[in-house]
Structure formats: structure tokens, C-alpha cells
Amino acid sequence: IHQYGQPDHSEVTTCAYCGVGCAFKAEMQGDKVVRMVPYKGGKANEGHSCVKGRFAYGYATHKDRITKPMIREKITDPWREVSWEEAINHAASEFKRIQATYGRDSVGGITSSRCTNEEAYLVQKLVRAAFGNNNVDTCARVCHSPTGYGLMSTLGTSAGTQDFKSVEESDVILVIGANPTDGHPVFGSRMKKRLREGARLIVADPRKIDLVKSPHIRADHHLPLKPGSNVAFINAFAHVIVTEGLIAEDYVRERCDLAEFESWARFIAEERNSPEAAQAITGVDPQEIRAAARLYATGGKAAIYYGLGVTEHSQGSTMVMGMANIAMATGNIGMVGAGVNPLRGQNNVQGSCDMGSFPHELPGYRHVSDDATRESFEAIWGAKLDNAPGLRITNMLDEAVGGSFKGMYIQGEDIAQSDPDTHHVTSGLKAMECIVIQDLFLNETAKYAHVFLPGASFLEKDGTFTNAERRISRVRKVMAPMGGYGDWEGTVLLANALGYKMEYTHPSEIMDEIAALTPSFAGVSYDKLEELGSIQWPCNEKAPLGTPMMHVDRFVRGKGRFMITEYVPTDERTTGKFPLILTTGRILSQYNVGAQTRRTENSRWHEEDVLEIHPFDAEMRGIVDGDLVALESRSGDIALKAKVTERMQPGIVYTTFHHAKTGANVITTDYSDWATNCPEYKVTAVQVRRTNRP
Ligand code: SF4
């Protein structure tokens, strides 16, 4: 205001960064955003915000924005600016040529968790109806796909159980593999408020995150797990609950499958799952695990909040099941203050999954092999749909390297920077004949692209995002798309050029189609969103105003299902050559691969990624704070500055992945979750040494 004077109008919209989904008023002068003001009416944030949503919107008008479509024949050619018509026709004719030459399954698409629900829905529709296969995947593959698999298997739905407000009534909070004060700051503040009021806290994390000890807050138990030991830990935690008689027997008898509970309880009670036996794997004092499990089981309403430290492991899905097991065993699902709650990373990762962005699921998490579901889509889409699951991102890249996968439409996703084992990703990208990128900037993946379509920021389009508590909120257009079209319009153009008719004049019509085809969205419309402000799905005849809390009287799947969670060590092992374990995460001021936040004033708080290392490991290597170090794994090596800190435990190092020049994913492995292929970003065996190489 000081700089620009008073705004002349404003519009309420939703933050495009993390899965908290804060509502903001975008205050405008003409078509210029003057400032973003946290909106008091936003149910996810109640008038609060963090430095990203409040200040880091300048990327939307950054000089690096690409505003003209571009094409090139070969990736070594310079880009040539063309009209939208020429770019779209070129992309369509290339995809048609590839399919005619290499077969129907030689192309696919990737939806974005940064784009709107309506846009993700259209990309998967294009792949299924226009390409005629199920080769569609989403960046959720590399973050929370195990959440979907684990919660669906145990509870019957691929989403968190509670709304954010629920934490205000928790008596015990168990945070596993999440750092809410950095990753989800507005929710982190809400959690801290409850902790200051007296809720008890257990943190299971290799690092001493801020919640472990900060002003007025001290965790009752910090369980510094070795990366890769989550399942051994949750089994040990459950062992205490089972063997010390802490089961909520009436709850389990009434609400869960008893035969499965009994076989789970027998498995968990085995001595090999005791905290003492697990200590060699977890590295955690067994008495601390025992005390924490007793607190969780007997301390009142207990809520679990977890993040990518749970999912990005070779046993990510198993760990999600393990958390659901202990919540059911102690009766901690279906009431306010309890639950199992993923802290979703990206603004619309929940939504992109809900919208059928997976190769095996149509919108609403219904399997492509289900004839009745497919027929309902075929009737409205006017296309015959494939009943076999398609390829995941990693499989698309594998097939590309093998020569049978040749074309990809990627909306709002930078797989060359965000996906693991960069060398493998770029080999796959280089092997393709047509890659179409729709994005704001020439990102790392665009280096391998043949067509570039200008993307639109969240300020330039209408739509909806769905946050981590299943809350669907409106995104409102406050300025004209700099490239001429919203992302959804680009998809419509491409589908039509491919010969598949898409006719929408506004994203509200896309939402109407989603509602007509998806039972959990049946009651959602833009009119209702206007009236209620936001809606948590399921919203349908049974719940016309939406559903803040799931599984209240019964689990969505009927009886809650206990799953056997056998611990299987990761194949990534430390050796004499690679004796340390690297784990990765985020910091408050930056966001993911930094494509947006690095182009804002936020960069002043974090100019580069650094390597956190314990003083013992640093001293052993002659490293002092600020030294340039080489970080080497079996996949590659990078150089970055060292930060010597007791936040780390000996044997474990940590870095962020916000800067392309660091390229942390050059060194991560290609191991992944057994069920979903979510990459094991959190466990990489490395060596660290001083270097002079910049
Ligand atoms: Fe945006 Fe998340 Fe910050 Fe809220 S907490 S302002 S949604 S980045």
C-alpha cells in the first residue's frame, strides 16, 4: 500500500503453494496485484498466512514468463515463436504420427498438482478419450501416492480423516516425518497453539525439527528414527499397544474386521516387533517408544499428522497402513481431535488425485477395470475407454529408454528436476520424439521439449483447488492470462486438434461434468461454492454441505481393515564408501523445486541449498561451517555448502531441493515404494568430503 496506494478492487482466491489452501484477498490496482491479504473468511487459514502466500506471488509477472507458444524440430534447435494455432496443430500432428507409427500406447500425459481440479480432470480426460489409453500420471506419484494406497486399503478412502480445526481438540499429537512449521506453516501455527494449551506431543523424525523444542513448546518424546526404519518403528509402537492391553476393544469389535484384527495382533505381538528388538533398526531407545505408545493410546484424543517422511520410502504404503492400524486399534478415528492426517505438499495434490490422474483410476478413485464406472464415463465422454491400467511416470520413462514410448503432454510439472535419479529421467526424455510442455517458465524438463505452450498462474484463471482436509476452494481470475489462455483452454485446444471434441466456455461447466460423474463430488457446483465459501468432499445427497470428518459411525469401506505390516529393509545400504544417509526436505521461505519462490523476494532468505551435518561427522571429515563439500552417492555427485548443526544426528545428513543449480535429485536413488512407485527420496547412502569444486 505504501508503495502503490490504495487498491481499487479485490477478489478472494486460494494460495497456490502448499496443501493448507489458505484463502487470500488479491488486492488490485487495475490489472496489477498490489498485495495479497489473508482472508478472514477462509476456513483453512482463518485470516492467517505464511511468507510464501503473502509475499511470493511476484513470479506471476516475472520477466522469465514465457508468453508465446514455441516449437522446434529437434531439442538442439533454437525455439521458434509461433501462434497458438500452429503450436497446437504441430503437437497434435506429432502425437497422431507417433501413435500411427508406434501404437496407441506410445504416448501419455502428466497432470499437475499445481493446476486446478478442472485442469487435471481435462488432462486425464484427453489421455483417456483422445489418446485412447490410461497412460496418465501425476506428480502425486512422487509424494503422496502411498497415502492413497494405504488409507484406501485400511479405511476405504484415499484422504485424510479430519478437518484442520480438529487439531484444536486433540489431547495428543503424533507428528511423523513432517515438519509443519516449515512445510505447512499456517497449520503448523494452529498445531502450536493447541500445544501451548497443553496438548502432548510426540515427534518421530530423524532431525530435531522446530516442534521438538521451540519457545513454549517441548515435545514429550522425540524419537529420532534412522531413515528407512519407519515400519519397524510403527510395529514396535503397536507392539506396546497390543501387549500392554491398550487396545480399544469395544471400538475394534464394533467397527473393524475381527479376523483381520486378530491376525494383525498376533503378528504385532511377536517378540521381533518389540521396541527392544527394533532398536537395532530404528536407533531409538526402546523405553522412549514404550512411553510414547502409552501416551498415544491412553492420553485422550490422539491425532496423527504425517508428511513425506512417511511416504517417500520403499515401504511408504506399508507405513501409512501401520499408522491406520494403531489409530483403529486405539479407537482414534471418527471423532474430533483424532484421526490420521496426511499433510499434503502441493496446493492441489489431493485434487489432482481425486480427479483421476492415476493410470489405474478414473475420477473418484474408481478402477478403470470396473465396467459400470467406465460405461458411465463413456456415455458422457462419447469415447470408448481402455479397461487396462496405463503406465506410471517411471514406467513411461523406462519404456521411452526402451524405445516404445515416444510422446508426452506435461502440464505444470518439472520431472527433470523433481523426479529421482535425474540421469534416468533425462535419458527417457531425450529418447522421446514429441514432448509438449505447458508451463510458466522454461523449466529443466523444457530442455527436452519440442512444443512449449505458455501456462497461466493461479491469478490468471478460474477453477478450484482441494486442500489436505478435502476442502474444495475457488481460484478466481484476477488478471488476463499472459499467454492468452488458461491451462484448461490449452488442453481443450489440443483435444480438439487431436479430433476429440471438448466444448467448455467456463471451468464451472467442467466442474458440473465432474459432479455428474463422481459420487463424492455430486453436490459440488460453483454456485454452492459461492454460497458456502468452500466445501469438503464427500458432498452429495447424503452430505449436501460436505463432510468435515470421515468415518464417523463406520469406515467408508465398511469394517476397518488391519493390514500386516512386515518390515522389509530398503535395498539402499550404507557401506564403507557411502557411510552416511542423506534425507531431504523443505524450508519455510521456499517451495519445492523453487520455480516460483526463487523468482520472488523470498530468495533473499534462502539463496542456496545447504547440507546439514552433525558436528561429529563434520569433524571426522575436517569440515567446518560454510565449507564447500562434495555430496556423492551411487547415482551421482553435487557440491554445496555445509551447515554444521546438532539438529542432525550422527550418520545422517540433510538438504533441501529448492535450487536447480544444486540438483539434489541427481544423487537420489531409483528405489521406490513397492505399491505405488513413489520414489525413496528420504534414504540415499552418501559420502561427504571437502572440495574446492564449485
Ligand atoms: Fe500458502 Fe501454505 Fe503458506 Fe497457506 S501455509 S499461505 S497455503 S504456502
Automatic annotation (TrEMBL):
Name of the featured protein: NAD-dependent formate dehydrogenase, molybdenum containing, alpha subunit
Gene Ontology MF term list: 2 iron, 2 sulfur cluster binding; 4 iron, 4 sulfur cluster binding; formate dehydrogenase (NAD+) activity; metal ion binding; molybdopterin cofactor binding; NADH dehydrogenase activity
Family: In the C-terminal section; belongs to the prokaryotic molybdopterin-containing oxidoreductase family. Belongs to the complex I 75 kDa subunit family.
Gene Ontology BP terms: formate metabolic process; respiratory electron transport chain
Domain 4Fe-4S Mo/W bis-MGD-type: 8-64
Residues of the full protein shown: 235 to 928 of 950
Its EC number(s): 1.2.1.2
Top-level taxonomic group: Bacteria
A GO cellular component entry from the record: membrane
Keywords, in A-Z order: 2Fe-2S, 4Fe-4S, Iron, Iron-sulfur, Metal-binding, Oxidoreductase, Repeat
Species: Methylorubrum extorquens (strain ATCC 14718 / DSM 1338 / JCM 2805 / NCIMB 9133 / AM1) (Methylobacterium extorquens)
Keyword NAD: no
